[in-house]
Design brief:
The protein has 405 residues and is mainly alpha-helical. 68% of the residues lie in helices and 6% in strands. The protein has a 5-stranded mixed beta sheet. Helix 1 packs parallel to helix 4 (40-56), helix 2 (12-24) crosses helix 12 and helix 13 (249-258) crosses helix 14 (261-292). The longest helix is centred in the last third of the chain and has 32 residues, at 261-292.
Length: 405
């Protein structure tokens, strides 16, 4: 989907480079999030596929293609509501730009996808209400409101500064993000279909980054859609300034020997292509190292130990959900709403989730499995564990405790 959209916007060479940037970037985390079966990557597929079909329908704005585009964008919003936050203002801005500036397509090109996106999301909410019942639906809605207030509508000056620092870190496209977005302003000026389509993508990226910096808890994962789409702008930035990714090495050497303005231009082009190569190859090499030479699988080692030394009947208290996939033991996890308290504790200095969760003290489970996440948020007090539990085994970040008789 990413390759098809990029090829539609700038040809096959741009498509190859943009897709390579998307897959390689450690800031986007495409491979990492894809392996974890989180909503970011399938949501990105629906969004990119929807944009690909939508932009291709502008030449022949048939209702079939427009309906397919709107359905794909609607599925993106259903897959992960972060995409609804990004797509809703983007679709409105696309319509407004057509009304007042670009005037590049009939009104139905914007109304049909926008209305269908909203219809898909509304239909999904109606299904949830019917499936869960009004009481559970209302409870989920209240939890979602609390999550939104604690992670998506924060407006903390300290977190704003941290969000900017994250975007300026070299792992975010090796400092190419903001130059590429600034160059993108040149792409959106022409009052034609290409300019309008680039403008839609630019608004999507800008809106997501503004929300990420000013309202979120500055976790780079919240900028996933913007960073993924930014690969298009970065590829176009290097394509236009580096002669469509072409470099004449013989001409470069001859120009350097001869001196003059031509040598400066060739050297600048060579420098840009070297920047692009580093932008792709360095993170790709790091990811390849993680895949082919991974660290010791502590979770698997712990799972083997549990099967050999811990009966299946006793309750194991933990906040490390991966263990529920690896063994058949009876795990008890903290309630999902406690995650909101943990987020506030870590990112905003709020109270520890220990104040709201006393399962160990009240229920006295036979085993407690502490891991990197539970220790990061301070869920299981060390003094409680030291008072009532013995350390049974330790595998990397995992510590397994057994209650004293």
């Amino acid at each position: 989907a990413a390759f098809g959209l990029a090829r539609q916007l700038g040809g096959p060479r741009l498509a190859w480079v943009a897709t390579a940037i998307l897959v390689a970037s450690r800031a986007v985390g495409f491979l990492e999030y894809g392996r974890q079966m989180l909503g970011e990557v399938p949501g990105l597929f629906f969004m990119l596929a929807g944009l690909w079909v939508w932009f291709g329908a502008w030449e022949r704005a048939g209702w079939g293609r427009l309906s397919l585009a709107g359905s794909l964008l609607g599925l993106a919003a259903v897959t992960k509501q972060q995409y609804l936050l990004v797509l809703a203002p983007t679709l409105l801005a696309a319509w407004g730009l057509n009304l007042f500036y670009h005037r590049s397509a009939p009104q139905r090109v914007f109304l049909a996808p926008g209305l269908l996106t909203a219809a898909w999301f509304a239909a999904w909410q109606a299904y949830l209400m019917a499936f869960l019942g009004p009481g559970s639906f209302a409870e989920n809605l209240e939890q979602y409101r609390e999550f939104t207030a604690g992670a998506a509508l924060v407006f903390s000056p300290a977190l704003m500064a941290r969000g900017v620092q994250e975007l300026l870190h070299p792992r975010v496209f090796l400092w190419a993000l903001f130059p590429a977005l600034a160059y993108g302003l040149r792409l959106i000026r022409p009052r034609d279909r290409a300019g309008h389509q680039w403008a839609i993508l630019w608004v999507l990226v800008a809106w997501n980054l503004v929300w990420y910096v000013f309202a979120s808890v500055s976790w780079l994962r919240y900028a996933f859609p913007a960073l993924a789409v930014s690969s298009l702008f970065i590829a176009r930035f290097f394509a236009d300034l580096a002669g469509n990714f072409q470099l004449d090495w013989r001409g470069l050497l001859a120009a350097v020997r001869a001196g003059g303005r031509r040598s400066v231009g060739e050297l600048v082009r060579a420098g840009l292509l070297a920047w692009l190569a580093a932008l792709v190859l360095i993170p790709a090499g790091q990811t390849a190292q993680d895949i082919f030479w991974p660290p010791v699988n502590q979770a698997r080692a712990l799972a083997d130990y549990l099967y050999q030394n811990v009966p299946l009947e006793p309750v194991v208290e933990t906040w490390e959900p991966e263990m529920g996939f690896l063994t058949d033991h009876r795990y008890h996890y903290p309630p999902q709403i406690l995650l909101n308290t943990a987020v506030k504790h870590v990112w905003q200095g709020g109270p520890s989730p220990v104040a709201e969760y006393t399962f160990i003290q009240d229920e006295q489970p036979g085993y407690v499995l502490a891991g990197a996440f539970s220790r990061w948020v301070g869920l299981y007090p060390p003094e409680t564990l030291a008072h009532s539990y013995d350390l049974l085994a330790e595998f990397g970040a995992y510590q397994l405790y057994r209650r004293r008789p």
